[in-house]
Amino acid sequence: MVTKVNAKTIILTGLLFLLGILLNAQVRLPRLISNGMVLQRDANIKLWGWASPGEKISVYFAENLYSTTANTDGQWSVLLDPLRAGGPYSMQIKASNELLIEDIMVGDVWICSGQSNMELPMRRVSWVYPNEITGCNNKFIRQFLVPQSYDFNRKHENYSSGVWKPADSISVLDFSAVAYFFAKELYDKYKIPIGLINNALGGSPAEAWMSEEALKQFPLHYNEMQRFKDTAFVNRLIKSDNSRIRAWYDELNKKDIEGRTLKAIYSQSRLASYSWKSIKIPAYWNGTELEKINGSIWFYKSICLSGLLANKKAELILGAIVDADSVFVNGIFVGATSYKYPPRRYTIPPGVLKSGENTILVRVISSQGVGGFVPDKPYEINFGSERIDLKGQWNYRVASLMPPLESQTFVRWKPGGLYNAMLHPLMNYKIKGVIWYQGESNAGRAMEYRKLFPAMIQNWRNDWNQGNFPFLFVQLANFMDPPSQPTESNWALLRESQLNTLSVAGTAMAVSIDIGEWNDIHPLNKKDVGVRLALAAHKVAYNQSFGEYSGPKYESMKIKGNRIVLSFTHISGGLVSKNNQPLQQFAIAGNDRKFVWAQATIKKGKIVVWSKEIKHPVAVRYAWADNPHGANLYNSDGLPASPFRTDDW
């Protein structure tokens, strides 16, 4: 059979073929190499990309010309000469096509990694730092936000998205809050450009950030990574989870027929026609009828406003709610949050609030465990000049009862996945160092962490092939209920594992035991964390001394009769108790290993610890709890001591 093809078809096909060749031949760059990037100063910079095999590439940068040829795989790279801090520069890259990269700065590049406390953006703490945000305008501080993804089967060479953004009052809202304050402190001190590569993912454990090769020394994690290489298995798992969760919510909404009526009602008189019970807010539901209830529960409260406040724009603040909520004011939907951690701060538009009676209606979904309105948080309507307190008695109705929702499988947290997709594309990019805030997700395996965390640091250093670059990390903050008596604690063990990691060369630790919150795993004070990391950077990364860069660190002990005398490092100006109050959170034990609260005092640069209950003491612990509230040992530079123990029990 002969097929006739006319000349126009042949010409068009040929043109399309040639166009395909030309498009494939064009030189390409990784997302990191783009407008506004910050390059590491005083270092040979590797510039890399892709082109056609054998294609010649020329790079014009900082009055220098660099030439290379793409290899048989289409990969190419050049090594740029070191430059001092400065900019902006432009870069021209010529091959079959031409690329122009503008507004390049040369300074210090920091990887900002870990889990949610590093990821947490400035917008989540915007009301805490309003002046920092509105006054932000620094083109010398820039962030590249790494897209969140995972891959268990291959190491990625590039990102799907990402741009460099200078810090201003709009863009800074997406900056990591810890990283921004860290960068600001460094810039204020050294006046050099600071590049932040924000490479964090909430909930991620350390093993997710390790390579397959590094995981071999941890067989359980290595084997789990192998299991998740099965794409069909992973897809089935995700599909099953999504189907199960969707069915749970479909059933909940189907049962919650009454809720559809309730949210359409906005007058107290009509709501009162339903049968309601009363509950005090804020509080968890322990000890109430709601303690064992999962499903949807509706709450409402009516308030009376004067004519002066009517029709005004306001902010509705509802602390935090376990687990999810939807909120209506006078029948108008004002916001929703789908999980328990974020602060609830909803805008009430102008015209919604009225003179006289106003009703706030909240639908809460408790998906598992005990729900509630988190205590010790603000619950109010904020008009700026005036605040209406919402704490106190609310009315509630249970609208639908459900079995607890089984947790989903967080595939993105599995071993090796984040290393391949989020970390590996950075390995060619020259850096100054790393700041790391993580550990909460490993607290249940705190003893493993004392090997896992140093192994992760070594893994990164080996693969970056840049020597022992500075690795600065945050010790876990205080969290959960304070203990009434000395107790064991996974979080204390995790902090000890972090403390032990200081034996790794080129590391330093920012202690945050005094700036956590008992009721929030994401404490709002991110500025002090960033500043303390910067103090560590002054010493470890810049070899500068501006007083102590660390709080007191336990060194040794001596038993003297019924007392134990403790010695510390990092106390150049002496030990102090915060606000000159008696030292707290010291516990002491004898051979029976039963700790009791102890008295402690500062004497000649040491701490003397004792208790009338312990005649022959052998061990001391300090701030050894999930939340050692009131721990108040500092040095004279205002930095808190790390929690510690003298025993190894």
Mean pLDDT metric: 94
Low-confidence stretches: 1-23
The computed structural class is: alpha+beta
Radius of gyration: 29 Å
- Calculate the terminal CA-CA distance, rounded to whole Å: 87 Å
- How many E strands? 36
What does this structure look like?
The chain has 649 residues and is an alpha+beta fold. Helix content is 22%, strand content 31%. It is built from 13 helices and 36 strands. The strands form 8 sheets. Strands 1, 3, 4, 6, 7, 8, 9, 10, 24, 25 and 26 form an 11-stranded mixed β-sheet that branches. It has a 6-stranded antiparallel β-sheet with strand order 11-23-13-19-16-17. Strands 18-14-21-22 form a 4-stranded antiparallel β-sheet, with no helix packed on it. Strand 16 (324-329) and strand 17 form a beta hairpin. Helix 11 packs parallel to helix 12. The longest helix is centred in the middle third of the chain and has 25 residues, at 231-255. The chain is globular, with a radius of gyration of 29 Å. Residues 1-23 have low confidence and may be disordered.
TL;DR?
With 649 residues, the protein is an alpha+beta fold.
List keywords for this structure.
single chain, 649 residues, alpha+beta, 11-stranded mixed sheet, 22% helix, globular
Write the layout of secondary structure elements.
Layout: H1 7-25, E1 38-40, E2 45-50, E3 56-61, E4 64-69, E5 75-80, E6 86-94, E7 98-114, H2 116-119, H3 130-134, E8 137-145, E9 164-168, H4 177-190, E10 194-200, H5 212-215, H6 219-227, H7 231-255, H8 257-262, H9 268-271, E11 277-281, E12 283-284, E13 294-305, E14 314-318, E15 321-322, E16 324-329, E17 332-337, E18 345-348, E19 356-366, E20 372-373, E21 379-382, E22 387-389, E23 392-402, H10 417-423, E24 433-437, H11 446-464, E25 471-474, H12 490-500, E26 507-510, H13 527-540, E27 553-560, E28 563-569, E29 575-577, E30 586-589, E31 596-597, E32 599-603, E33 606-610, E34 619-622, E35 633-635, E36 644-645
Helix pairs in contact: 4-13, 11-12
